[in-house]
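quick one before i forget lol
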Amino acid sequence: MITHLDFERPIADLENKIAELKHLSGAEDIDIVQEIQRLQSKAEKLLLQTYAKLSPWQKVQVARHPDRPHFSDIVVKLVQDFTPLAGDRTFAEDRAILGGFARFHGQSVVIMGHEKGHDTESRLRHNFGMPKPEGYRKAKRLMELADQFNLPLISLIDTAGAYPGLDAEERGQAEAIAKCLEKSMTLRVPYVAVVVGEGGSGGAIAIAAANHVHMLEHAVYSVITPEGCASILWRSASRAQDAALAQKLTAQDLLELSVIDEIIPEPLGGAHRNHAISASKIDKALVKSFAELGRFDDKGLLNHRREKFLKIGRML
């Protein structure tokens, strides 16, 4: 069963009615079949109209949808022979970031990304996709391996932010993120990042400082969550909708600002409705990016990445 968001209630009513009629249509009643077809057409039209005009806050809700595909859902459809690597070789294993070696269209690659989990048990195991310093040190280790073995690097971003707890601060959260960014700027291999859900602050950009940065159509990417922004500006998280509008956090806003390079379309109704199609769209974007980056040598990749980030916010 699909989990419907608050703004999808009219769609939910139609889809629930369709499900009821399908349950009754075992006798292949022609009238019921025709009614199902009529309602399906109406539901698709309403879905198209609704998702064509989502507000920034509604896009935040879609990006956080409990059924949205996370790293583990995407990696099984995107690559072959995935071999996960664990640990930061310093303190511990952090399951908020997963990664390892894989094959992408026959090419050996390193792939990594945030994992939020889908149920209470898995969300606790993955700390809701909020890495601690050991998670970022593992990510840096994966970057170093990609560099050492001259392998393209893929990064899938989906986090509300780095874990803000006292233990993370004690173990050097800020430094671990900074070291990831430093390593990103010295990589001599093609590096492509995709924001698949939430891209939250330094917790996201630590593994998103890539040659090409893409976003799924209804993903969001910002320096702070709308609730956090509202709490600072208006002393109330209830103004999150206003904050989301002001933050320019949608893929469409960020493409216009040249923060990202491409928007990857999602299936009608959001990526959570069809994981396979979503992975296929990501696949096509990655193939295109690696083909474009293939014309650069290692020095060219360094300069390309450096110039990409230096020009963000530059006044022409």
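fyi The chain has a mean pLDDT of 92.
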